[in-house]
Design brief:
The protein is an alpha+beta fold. It has helices at residues 27-43, 134-147, 165-170, and strands at 47-49, 59-64, 76-88, 93-98, 106-113, 115-121, 127-133, 162-164. It binds nickel (II) ion.
């Protein structure tokens, strides 16, 4: 039950592919989930993957009612997703601005599937199966990428759209996320 250190880009552990969770409902898994929520809240994030706190398991948390980091984004229900699988439901991708607690102070324009289905289980094994679009779909893709060792700059097509949050805001370039 604690805020944990968030690994930053350059740490090789962020590039590892995480292992599926084998046994659900364990105290260890519960405690990992609490740490993920605590760490995410302390940093003002809207999602966090276990790999970001150095735990190589396929677990992510995400959700927000309102984020000052993404003021125009719609709410996302608080969700713990274990062993997630993503399936694009259309070939359309959209560009949107993203940040990451492992890449502090930066933003980049990243293409993501617009419309996806995602499935997985919660920490007790109850199935999660959702069809989502837009910002919610973007956050799920971003977090699940962490489980495969992929950070958002690795998805970018145009690195001229990557920069420090403050500079981008001054230039009026990252006002509309998602
Ligand atoms: Ni991230």
């Amino acid at each position: 039950m604690a805020e944990r250190r968030v690994l930053r880009m350059g740490d090789p552990d962020l590039l590892r592919v995480a292992e599926p969770v084998g046994t659900l409902g364990t105290p260890e898994l519960e405690s990992l989930v609490v740490d993920l929520w605590d760490t995410m809240a302390a940093r003002g994030g809207i999602g966090l993957a276990a790999t970001q706190i150095g735990v190589p398991l396929r677990v992510v948390v995400l959700g927000m009612e309102h984020s000052p980091r993404y003021p125009e984004a719609p709410p996302i229900p608080r969700t713990v997703l274990v062993n997630p699988v993503i399936e694009p439901l259309a070939q359309t991708t959209v560009d949107g601005w993203e940040g990451c607690l492992s890449v502090p102070g930066m933003r980049g324009l990243v293409p993501r599937w617009h419309h996806i289905r995602y499935r997985g289980v919660d920490p007790h094994g109850h199935p999660i199966d959702r069809e989502v679009e837009g910002f919610h779909a973007r956050v799920v893709q971003h977090e699940c990428d962490h489980l495969d060792g992929i950070l958002y700059p690795m998805r970018m097509r145009d690195l001229s759209r990557f920069g420090f949050e403050e500079e981008l805001a001054l230039a009026g370039r990252s006002a509309t996320p998602g």
